[in-house]
Amino acid sequence: MTSTRGKTKQPFEPSLVPPPGALLEWRDSQHFDRWQDRPCALCDKPTPMRSHAGEPVHKACAEDWIAANPVEARLGRFASDTQPKSTKRATHA
After folding, report:
1. Residue 14, CA atoms < 13 Å, CB-side half-sphere
2. What is the pTM of this model?
3. What phi and psi values does residue 3 have, to the nearest 5 degrees?
4. 50: Cβ–Cβ under 8 A, 6 or more apart, which residues?
5. Cα torsion through 77, 16, 72, 26, rounded to 10
6. Which tens digit of pLDDT belongs to each residue from 42-84?
7. Of 27, 34, 39, 62, which sees the most CB atoms within 10 A?
């Protein structure tokens, strides 16, 4: 567990690696560092974005990397967030 200003947060787990050309689903706020930009691991330009492992990376750079490295991408360097099951009921007409 990590502690953030008195609050205890569970580490978040990555889900599946999207297929090449698909978009990453990064909805968890832990992907965004509101305090400090760091150089992207792939393009070296500043970014507030972080991967699941805390690696500074633009989401678009990570998506491009997955498309260019589909075999290595399966190891999970960049992955989508785990999506919680919806609590909404489907309505049928």
Report:
1. 18
2. 0.73
3. -110, 130
4. 30, 31, 32, 33, 56, 57
5. -40
6. 999 999 999 999 999 999 999 999 999 999 998 889 999 886 5
7. 62
